[in-house]
Amino acid sequence: MGARSVRTxxxxxxxxxxxxxxxxxxxTRRRHSTTWAGIAFAAPLLAxxxxxxxxxxxxxxxxxxxxxxxxTFVHGGAPFVGFDIYREVVGDAKFWRVVxxxxxxxxxxxxxxxxxxxxxxxxxxRGGFRLSTVLRGMFLVPWLLPVIVSGTVWQWMMNxxxxxxxxxxxxxxAGPVWWLNSHNALMSxxxxxxxxxxxxxxxxxxxxxxxxxxxxxxxASIDGAGAWQQFWRITMPLLRPVSIITVLLGLxxxxxxxxxxxxxxxxxxxxxxxxxxxxxxxxxxxxSTVIRYSQASAVGTILLVxxxxxxLVYLALQRRGED
Amino acid sequence: xxxxxxxxxxxxxxxxxCVSVTACSGNSTPSPSGSGDASRGATTSEIRFWDPYPQxxxxxxxxxxxKSCAPAGSTIVRSSAPQTDLFNQLTTAVKEGNPxxxxxxxxxxxPEAAASGLLATAGQAGIDTSGVDxxxxxxxxxxxxxxxxxxxxxxxxLYYNKAILDQAGIDPASITSWDALNSALEKVVAAGxxxxxxxxxxxxxxxxxxxxxxxxAGASLSDLASDEAVSAxxxxxxxxxxxxxxxxxxxxxxxxxxxxxxxxxxxxxxNGSWFAAAAAAADFETGVIPIPSKAGGVAPVPTGGxxxxxxxxxxxxxxxxxxxxxxxxxxxxxxxxxxxxETLGYLSARPKTRAxxxxxxxxxxPWVASVEGAEGRTTELxxxxxxxxxxxxxxxxxxxxxxxxxxxxxxxxxxxxxx
Lengths: 323, 419
Description:
The complex is a heterodimer.
Chain A: H1 2-21, H2 27-64, H3 70-75, H4 84-91, H5 95-126, H6 132-138, H7 141-144, H8 147-157, H9 164-171, H10 185-210, H11 214-222, H12 227-255, H13 259-265, H14 274-283, H15 293-322
Helix pairs in contact in A: 2-15, 4-15, 5-10, 5-12, 8-13, 10-12, 10-13, 12-15, 14-15
Chain B: H1 2-27, E1 46-51, H2 61-68, E2 75-80, H3 83-95, E3 102-106, H4 110-115, H5 134-137, E4 141-142, E5 145-146, E6 149-150, E7 156-161, H6 162-168, H7 178-190, E8 194-197, H8 204-216, H9 227-241, H10 254-262, E9 266-272, H11 276-280, E10 286-289, E11 306-309, H12 317-332, H13 334-344, H14 351-360, H15 368-372, H16 385-402, H17 406-414
Parallel strand pairs in B: 1-2, 1-3, 8-9
Antiparallel strand pairs in B: 3-11, 4-5, 6-11, 7-9, 7-10
Helix pairs in contact in B: 2-13, 8-9, 8-16, 9-16, 9-17, 13-14, 16-17
């Protein structure tokens, strides 16, 4: 009886709402037009996605399947060549070297950014250090500075003849390092990139730490767990979802880094990555004096596929976390 | 309410149609147009002028000079971007059928721009190329057709710090071969000073600076692996190896290299005539000598400087060309031509104006021989030059990084290839 009265009440409310929304119209027709309204509301988003994501992506892929030069880019008529451009790019003497450099740049950056970020986050989270807030603010500087500024400053600090880094090494008796020569360039840009990425890791991991209940640590210390055990048994497992997001976002960001490398070396020597290579060819800059639209698109597409794989890994891990 | 919903839906459909139509229209490409003639057009109220001199901001002498060349009833809207970006923007603008009236384009880009159908011929655009030196006009002539006129020309020379040379007992006039230069470098470094600054940065800028040594060794752009080419690479590589040149040459552009010279610590700087005024105003006494060739004598330097060109127009072509004709004529002839050259720090491309310029400003005297003996970068290879320049750039980087190691220098030049 009670249930029935509730049902009646509900349908009464529904009826009333229908009356409010559209006096005198049957319910079925209302449903029908709600679908249309839904589509209409989604339309701007769909148009946006189509226009700014799908269309450029399609154009990019189409470009990599045609042989463009400056003339055909302007006046049309670029011949369709299938996967010839991909074959050329992959077959180029430096392709695998650039892939290896990209991999090493990305992995070393991520590992160091994450470990340093985590160490700092734990340090600041523990508190008890008076200048924590000020220091934490200062650690954000790399993130806030325009990359053109930090890149130029790194280049200046790494000057082989009179840079401050070599002077500092000299104090400890080490010989000067030619930081930005073709051999050391990858190491140097990686160092600068690690410095750039630490604040991002610090901020995300710090907020992750704040979500771990303090009771757990209290309980663990009553049970006699030391600081090290608390870190590995409580902090790391509970930080896992945040860690995964941080690392995967970092991977995708680092994979496509152009700015810091370009400002420091223009992708010279070992500092050439897939992203800088593609950028140079797309705009006829750096070592690629000729504008190579198609080859740049092909490298860009390859990069995109790699990023997509990491994106899918992220989604899969996230779904598993939700289950 | 239903009507409203339908209305909203219709607007949404219409909007997305609009959007896709615009997207499509961006895709339709205008075909190269042979039509349009400056003499049949009339200047318009707004004239768009693009140049690669972002350092000359609005209100600067150059900006004022350009705008003063607007024909009666017109105003010039000027915008600037670095060389490569400007070329890319021009490419996109022509594709979209909306290029500016006049562009100042770096001379080695001319063959590619003309071959890609971006430029109107000098004839169409009413640009007068008479009286311009052949070597300076060369880069703007493609398949026998002229596409523009040089605003002026700059050249590379060897600046020196007089106090340092005096202290080491070196007479700059005696530096007429590589051997003489190398022994001078050795002496100044032994005397406690630093040697030479130049730009070896990746890309066209580094290649531009390397070409006097490359050509001065007798090498040719059609053979990067020749012994002559390798010897030029070895020369600059040894400078880094012996500590005559800073290691930062691998990333220094020409401005950075010049700033190093301005510290007063370096004896020499290979740099452009556009710094002549700044050198004369430096805290220490400077001079300039022509770049020596390997065996002795003056090495050919690459022509520097931009061309005034009119991009291909698809709508109201004759009017746009009339704009170009009026403004370019103003900037490159008569009294204003002299102002143009002086403001940009260039020597005029016309011998007559150049002679007046040198008479009026003695700072130019040492540069005349270099400009008159300069070689166009694209003269030998045409539009192919850019590709070879990219390979040469890699070779230069390899040589500088080798820091004197002869085997590595040779490999850098023989392996220079790829994309």
